[in-house]
TrEMBL record:
Organism: Nocardioides islandensis
Domain of life, per lineage: Bacteria
Residue spans crossing the bilayer: 54-72
Stored Pfam families: DUF4235
Protein name according to UniProt: DUF4235 domain-containing protein
Keywords from the UniProt entry: Membrane, Transmembrane, Transmembrane helix
Amino acid sequence: MAEGGSKVWTVFSLVSALAAAAIAKKGLNTSWRAATGKNPPENPADPDVDVWEAVLWAAVSGTFVALARMLAQRKAAGYYLKSKGQLPPQLQKGDAVPNTST
């Protein structure tokens, strides 16, 4: 059963992370246009894009997309816990504590 649960969690986690990233990106694009009056840089590495605009876009978009993905995966783990009665196999803590003394 653990193998089946692992596959279910992998798909569930991936779908939730991708959906959250897409929603965050759309929200970021809209917010960027509202704040700056122009579209976000398509390619921040393009030399025609001002370096500070590229740095700001990379920092803001990276942060918000990562946060959205993390929150979506936490929510997905909560749904998994409610439906299966345990955390996904990848999130379960090991029962044994490694012995570091020699």
